[in-house]
Amino acid sequence: MTVVFRIVTELDAPPTRVFALSLDIGAHERSMARTGERAVAGTTSGTIGLGETVTWRARHLGAVWRMTSQITVLEAPHRFVDEQVRGPFARFRHEHRFGPSARGTRMVDEVAFRAPLGPLGFLAERIVLARYMPALIRARNASLAAELGAEQTG
To answer: Angle CA(91)–CA(95)–CA(100) in degrees, nearest 5?
Structure first.
């Protein structure tokens, strides 16, 4: 079964800046520092673009994983979608949307994923991943917010 969740984050920066930072490989690596996530193939630095792929290597849940994602939709500065093309999930799709708000930007993350391995995957989704994945996205968003705040004061 597919797990779907949505996270809304308000950020103190204009949508164009939040959008650009969200596509920056280095910003992603900094936001995932606790997992040691690194771009190891495809687009490994700078800004990733439409049709491009990146392969991430990271430690999650005590194991080292590799996942290749592709940017399948890019509508600057409003929306982009990354989808797993190779990796640990049976399906993984992350839609990022950006719009103006009173604070600056309202960023909406909609994530849909399905674990492999049939009934075992279903158990993993319900017991572990349904909590772990939203926490991971919230941590990433907090890192982006801190980085944007540092830019404004620096």
So the answer is: 170
